[in-house]
Each structure stands twice: as structure tokens, then as C-alpha cells.
Amino acid sequence: MKKKIVVIGAGVAGLASAIRLQHAGYDVELYEKESMPGGKMHRIELDGYQFDLGPSIVMMPELYQEIFELCGRNPDDYIPMQRLDPMYRVYFGDDPEHPYDISSDLTSLTKTIESISEEDTEGFFRYLQEIYKRFLVAKNHFIQRPFRQPKDFYNPSTLKQALKLKTLDSADQFIGKYIKNERLKQMISFQTLYIGISPYNGPSLYTMIPMIEFLYGVWFIKGGMYTMATAMEKLFLELGGKIHYNSPVDEICIEHGRATGIRLGNQTINADYIVCNADFPFAMKHLIKDVKAKGKYTDKKIDSMKYSCSCFLMYLGMNRKYEEIDHVHNFIFNENLEQNLTDIFEGNQLENGSFYVYIASKKDPSLAPEGKDGLYILMPVSDLSTAKYEWNNETIQYYRQYILQSLKKIKGFEQIENEIVTETYMTPKDFESKFHAYNGACFGLQPTLSQSNHMRPQSKSTHCEHLYFAGSSTHPGAGVPIVLLSAKIAVQELLLDDQG
Fold this sequence. Notes:
Blueprint: E1 4-8, H1 12-23, E2 27-31, E3 43-46, E4 49-52, H2 61-70, E5 81-84, E6 88-92, E7 100-102, H3 106-116, H4 118-141, H5 156-165, H6 171-176, H7 182-189, H8 208-216, E8 218-221, H9 226-238, E9 242-244, E10 251-255, E11 258-264, E12 267-270, E13 273-276, H10 280-287, H11 291-294, H12 299-304, E14 310-318, E15 329-333, H13 337-346, E16 355-358, E17 374-381, H14 393-407, E18 420-426, H15 428-435, E19 467-469, H16 480-499
Parallel strand pairs: 1-2, 1-13, 2-9, 6-15, 13-19
Antiparallel strand pairs: 3-4, 5-8, 6-7, 10-11, 11-12, 14-17, 14-18, 15-16, 16-17
């Protein structure tokens, strides 16, 4: 008889874990509190417009494809992808008439960097060389493996590799060694926000994120990112898995130091193993009632940990196509990015902010009514535990007005305010209530040095047998490709315990 595994949460890591385990021969059932798959990779449908709710940029496509190849499927049949080149356009608020197109074609990229600062171009290539060496160390020795016990990190071999990561300086300090031009530095360092941390205090290792873009490119999945969620759901069901939607889990049942099932209301579902894809801080505080099973992650510890920034998102259905805007991905930087990010992580309401505009309907017109575009606009903001202001309608209107006034300065968006036909929003409070993102932190725990690698929550529970975790607050961290790796690690850990 097959052993039964319950997976909590149909987010990216939950779906990926469920697929891997079903493929490995287990009887897997997935319980999701929402009515659809994807977690923060949800979709918002609004008057004929379809928007990706959260993640929007596809990097490292081979990690997306791996889950389908594992099961003998052709990824192109599930998640057809197209490479974007240029990858995105960058505008600066004090000079919106002269944007920069950022390409992953090395010739085009070199010309763009030379046009900004010829003397920094040589430094840019030295930065790439140095961070690529660190990237190989991280990939081969850290982000694809678990740290089950202290000795898995504290041994001569691993410590030797850890020294090669040189993580003590910040992303901004590291890039500043090679590049002096402020605009160029901003264009290379801002991507640390993809995982919710500032380049001014985030470890330098995370400057491998722009390097991955420059060397490997950015991709677009037909139908938007939500296609990945529905494709994984489809694959899991094809393999014989079962999904229970509208089924919020109230508790992970633990007896004598071992997870035995889950409780939904008055119903108890028994299982041999549990994989939890609920946000780790939420799960530890609310789903695990057994104090011993929490280990060091007491309620006090969870509250004292550092959390990533959050996001304010606008989803705008427009009355026309934006032919003047050439790209799917567009970044609008405030000229004083450092002050902008300081305000975010100190909890101040932003007087000047940077934001991102995603127009998926440029690549896939089916995502909006004929002849129309939908605009997804994201602004990084403080998480709820840091914010010194309340999220209410007044706050929403304040940020809405700031974003629209900033966009009016960009050619093509001059009349944007009059072209909106329908709109909705996501705030940090929505991320907290809808997805149990602790403190509304979209990217989970901040990947600070003290919350990374062996010091980040691991996939195998430390004080409860047969319980595993996957998702952005666990090792190796946030971002869709990395979260997919967290699922792979969680499943490997489970298989190690069950099969040796």
C-alpha cells in the first residue's frame, strides 16, 4: 500500500513538491485554502482583463522546465516560453525622455553601458567575472543542498567554499568597487528587490541576480506566469494526485514528536508525512500548536526575525493599446534610490518611490480585450511590522496618485489617468490575509546573512519527525526559481528519511 503524503498549500513550492512525490510513487493529496492554484502566482480577472497577481519575470527557465522533464513531459506542451530581448526598459524620474533598453545580448548590452559610462564598462566585465565565480560556488555548494545538522555547514570543506562567497560587504558596496556611475550602479543592484532586500544592506552575493539576467536572459510564458501554476496543477492531476480547494488547514497534528496529519475544522486527515508550503513564520505560529515541535521558532523568535519588504500593486484595465511603449517589463527609478529604499526599510511613507510596470498583453493579446492593454504596476513598500502608517483607502489613493503623476512624464502615458476603465489593488494587508504572508512580507524572511543558508529555516523540521517545509521563507530563499529548488530539497529530505 502506498504511503500517504499531505501537502499544505498549492503555491509554487507546494505544487512542485506534490508533483515530485506523486511521481516518486506516493499517494499525495494537496490542501489549498483558495479556490485556485499558484499561491502568490495567482491570477486576477477583471472585466475581461487578466493579470498575474505576483511574480512576473521568468529567469532560469530550466528550473521551470525541470519539473515537467522529470515526469517525462515536454515542457513546451505545458509552459511555452519566448525569450525577451531587450529584457526591459529603464526610465529615470529626472530624465524620463532618455530611457535605457537592457539586453542580454552581450554586444547590445556593451553598447548601452558604454553610452552611460565608457570607463565603467571595463569595471562591469570585472564585476561579471567576480560574481560568476561566486555564483558557481553558491550553485554547487549551497543553494541546491540542505543543512540538516550544524556539521553539514561547519566542516572544513563547506567552510572553505563559504569563504569564497565573500558575503560581508553589501550589494551596493560590491558593485561600487567596479562601477562609479550612479545610474549604472542602480540598474545593476536594484534586482535584490526581487527577493525583498535592499542592495544597500543586502549581502553582495545577491548581485548574482542581475548577472543571471545578463548572461542567461529573461523569458515570457504564454498566458503569463499563471500558466506555470495551472500547468503544474494539470501535471499533478495527470499523475493521479488529488487537490482539495477551499480547504484551509487549521492545524498540523503532532503526536509524540511526529506529524500524523492535518485538521480542517472538525475533520482530521491522517498522513504518513506532511509537506507544508504555508509561509514558514505563519505555519510555526499558527499551524503548529505543539510547543516542543516549534523548536527554537517560538512565537517570540518569529516576531523578532527580519522580514522582506512588501508591495503595493495596481491592476489597471486600459481603453487602448500602448504602442508607444515597446517592452513588457519597464522600471521607473527615482533619482535618489538610496533614500527611497531607506524609507521602505525604515517604515516611512514614500515621498519619492521607484516602481515597475508590466504589460503582459503586449506579448499575449488574449490577456486583455481586443485592442486594449492591462497594466500591472508594482511599488515596493514597507512590510506591516515596519510601516509607520496605516494601509487604508487614503494610503491607496496617495500611492495611486504618485504613480500616475510619475507615469504622465513618460511618452505614451501622458493621458493615463483618463484611459483607465477598470482597476483593483493588492496591499500588504491583502498579502497577509489572502496568502498568510507574515507581516504582509511578499518575499518571506529577509535573506540577511543571519537568515541565509544553514541559519535559514530548513526543509526538515528540527523538532518534529515526518514534517517538511518548502517556500520562500525556507532555505534557499525567495524568487520562483529558488522556491522551486526549495521543493526539490524538501522532497529529497523526505525521501532520505523514508527510503534511506
